[in-house]
Every structure is written in structure tokens, then in C-alpha cells.
């Protein structure tokens, strides 16, 4: 097997390892819709209060994604992902002892969410390093793990809550998280990154081999200062993304998408319970959603990588269709119509979710990916703070999620309109880039 190659050899082992970590670790928060209704009944809280552990989980997941690129300047990717797995394990395992919504928000929300964010961010960056020609396909494989997890976990969580209660469910879920460790041990930096690291080590050890122990201390101090310099340089790199007009288009449109996507997963079971559908059947509808989400993530890459459709065309169509699906969702009140809605929404969501990372790597330099992910994730974290208040306002005050889904529909249709102006943003970006290149050439 060719280890030092892009788009082949070890790259596909990395893609499979990323799939497995997403399956066992990254999908816990995505199955929050089943847990949400149980939290309301177990802790006897309002829906506004019950939504806080999952909102905090999403916020800390976005924080984890945002700083994952910075931590890679200090830690190897294998150490970072293994440590993240253990953070998730302890967060979910200790949720067994939660007696109120506050401790659950800290353990299941903050601790587990932060670990999941680190795993997700590290995996995204690694896939982007290992793949070029088949990047969309590989990204689809990565995110397919999340969809597969959403297919398996909701029915399992429903069964575990019925048999062992919500606290026992958390304890058993922590065992599933530990199954991600073997895949995490397969993570390794991309060949070009490893080469740079090896060159630095050779340079430092060449001094070491010729000198005494006093130089080893100097070398260690140099390595520390070098790592700190790398972090500072990375933060400076983050600022560069703000000069790209396409960054704003991608971040705003996909930020609105992710906000609606995570909100949908949290409230959809409660919405179905409001319409008289049993909890076990509601979990089955999430499985349908996840199955078609998986199909979307695995198929959209082939259409884009083999040039059947452009990213702009796919984005316009998918955002528009998703907006229509959200607007029509309040009219789906029986099981059959909800099945069709879940299937179509799942497929469209899977396509859009995969395109999010691909757009960053397509329209921005690859070196700006950690900065784009970091700043974009922080923006999502800020937006997510409004979710509990929206849920409390629409469901607890107006006793219905219908207006919330209408709001989501308008958001997605607006995103489709944004992407119609993609040529204008791209032209402006090229003009700015060329002007910067001319200034650098004069210097």
C-alpha cells in the first residue's frame, strides 16, 4: 500500500477511520431528538430548559471544531483525536450521575460536545489534506458516519431509555464511544505535513548529536517557542479569510443551514409526539431521515467530482428544495406524509452538509481551511444561543412548531438566492486576490 500518496493508498484507510469515529462518536449529539423528549419527562422541565444541554453541546462542538486546527500545531493528530474520544467517554459516562438539567448541560452538553467537535474538526482537516481529486467523495464518506450513526442510535437509545432509564442509557452509550478508539489510532498526518515535521526534527537533532546535555535543554525550549509561534501564525492566518468575499457567502448560507439542521434533529421527535405518533415510531422516522441523509452524502460527491453539476447549481437547487420541505412540513400530520418528508429532507440535508466543507476547499486556498472552519464554527456557536428561546417561544407559548418551520423555510430559500449571486462574489474575490498579488510583486 502506498503510504505517501494523495487520493490513494493510505488515504482511503484514513477515510474509513474517519467514517468509524463519526459513527461511534460524532453521532451522539445528532441523536438528541430522542433524548430531548425523555429529558422533558425525566427532569420535569419545560422545553426551553430541556433544550439547553443540546444547545450547549452544539456550542461546545463548534468551539471544538474552531480550535482543532490550532491544537494540531501543538499536538499530533493521533494524540488529539484519542484524547477527544476519552473526553467524550467521560462526559457521557458521568452523565449517568446527573440529577438535574444543570449537571447534564455540563457533562453531556459541554464536555461531550467539546470532544465531538475536536474529533469532527480534526477529521475534516485530515480528509482535506489526504484528498484532492476525490475530496468530495472522501468528505461524503466522512460525514456518512454521522448519518449511519443517526440510523442506528435513535432506535437503540429509545430501547435503552425504556429498559434502563435515561441515566443508564448514558452509561451504555459511553461504551459505544470507546469503540472509536481503534479507528483514532489509525490517524496520521498527511505525507507533506509529516515531511515538514521530520525536517524540523532532523534540524534540531543534528545539533543535539554534536553537543552535550546543555543543548538538549535549548532544543526543548526552541521546540516550545516554535510551537507557540506556529499557533500565533495560525491565528494570523485566520484573519486572511475575511478578505475573501466567497467566505462570507459560504459561512452565512451554510451557517443558516446548520442552525436549521441541528434544530430539526432536536425538535422533530417532539413535533411528531404532538401529532399523536408514538415515541418508538418517531425514532423510526429519524432512522428514515438518516438513511436518506447517508444516501445524499455518498452520492453527491460523484456528481460534483465528475463534473456533472457545479457546486453553485447544486447549492441553489438543494437550498430551494429544503426551504420548500420546511414550509410544507406543518401540513404533514400523518405517519406516511412525515415519512416522505423525512426521506426528502434527509437526502437534501446530506447533499448540502457534504458541500459545506467542499465549498471552503474549492473557493478558498487549502491553507485557509482551519481558519474558515474556526471562524465559521464560532459564528454557528453564537447563533445557536438563540435556539432554546426559539423553542420555548414557539412551542411553550404558541403550543406549536409550525411557525418555527416556516421560519426555517424562509432561511433556506434566502440561502438559494444568495448562491444565485455566486459569480458576482467570485469575480470580486478574484479582483481582490489579483490586486494583492500585484502589491506583493511590487514589494
What labels would you give this structure?
mainly alpha; about 450 residues; globular; single chain; about 85% helix; 18 helices
**How many helical elements?**
18
Backbone structural class: mainly alpha
Rg from alpha-carbon coordinates: 22 Å
Tell me the helix content: over 70%
Most strands sheet: none
Instruction: Tell me the overall shape.
Output: globular
Portion in beta strands: under 5%
The ordered H/E elements are: HHHHHHHHHHHHHHHHHH
Total beta-strand segments: 0
Oligomerization: single chain
**N-to-C span:** 45 Å
- Residue-averaged pLDDT, rounded? 81
Low-confidence stretches: 194-212
3D structure, described in words:
The protein is mostly helical and 443 residues long. It has 18 helices and no strands. Helix 4 runs antiparallel to helix 15. The longest helix has 44 residues. About 4% of the residues have low confidence.
